[in-house]
Amino acid sequence: MAETEYPLLVFPEPAYAERAKRGGGGGKLSIPDASRQAERLTPQFQRLQDAMEQQRLALQDNPLGIQPEQVLVLETIGSIDGFIKAVKKVQGLEWLGEYELDDISPDYGFENEQTPDKYLRGRLFLVMTDQRALQELCSLFEKWKENPKTQFALGLTPLKHAFEYLHTIRPWGAEDRIQETGIWEDWQGRLQSSQDTVPFEAELWFRADAGRREQAESHLRSIIVSAGGEVIQQCVIPNIAYHAVLGQIPRTGIEDINGQPGVRQNILQCGGVMYLRPVGQCAVPISEDTAETDALEQEPPSEFPQGEPTVALFDGMPLTGHRLLDGRLIVDDPDGYESAYQAREREHGTAMASLICHEDLNEKGVPMGRPLYVRPIMRPRRDFDGQLIGEAIPPDVLPVDLVHRAVRRLYESENGEPPAAPGVRVINLSIGDRARPLDRQMSSWARLLDWLAWKYHVLFIVSAGNHAQDITLDIPRTELENLTDEKREQAVIKAVAKDTRNRRLLSPAETLNGLTVGVTHADASSRSPGRLIDPFARTGLPSVICAHGPGYRRAVKPDILLPGGRQFLTEKIGTAHAKATLRFNSSLGPPRQRVAAPGNAGRLNQTVHTRGTSNAAALASRGASFLYDLIGRLRGQADMDIPPQFDAVLIKALLVHGADWADVKTVYETALKNPHNSHTFKECLGRFLGYGSANIPKVMTCTEQRVTVLGFGELGDGDGAGFTLPLPPGLSAVNERRRLTVTLAWLSPVSSTRQNYRVAHLWFGSKNSIAPERVCADYRAVQRGTVQHEIFEGGTAVVFQDGDSIVIKVNCRADAGEILAPIRYGLAVTLEVAEGVDIPIYQEVWDRLAVRISVQDVRSV
Question: Are strands 606-610 and 593-597 parallel, antiparallel or unpaired?
Answer without folding.
Answer: antiparallel
